[in-house]
Amino acid sequence: MDAEQARQTEAYTLGVQAVLWGMQWVKAGQTLRISAAPLPQETKRNPVDPSPHGINVWGHARALLTHEIRFIETPNTETLYSIAILDLKDGPIVVVHPDLGERYFRTSIWEHHGDAHTISQKKDGAK
After folding, report:
1. In this structure, are residues 72 and 82 in contact, taking their beta carbons and an 8 Å threshold?
2. pLDDT at residue 38, as a whole number
């Protein structure tokens, strides 16, 4: 490989790395904007839409997703989804859920820059 081929290979490799590294932030930002955007006036909420359409608001799906709805890449069609976009500029918050007994639940906390944390019945118990 001569010097020019090495420069081209390095440029290509850096480009691929930039896309792979940056895509998470781009997709997270896009999801944040779409989920937080208010519904246009007189628009009826889709029952499978879990988006909050605001900040510091819970959004809850009222029906199961189908294979046609792709608000996430591979949705579970047996799960009701809820989403909240929370503004932490004034400090941390506490999210409380009821005692769900033996029912399975999972709460995922996604940070805009890619960190994810999970609280679940299997890992943490029902309370």
Report:
1. no
2. 94
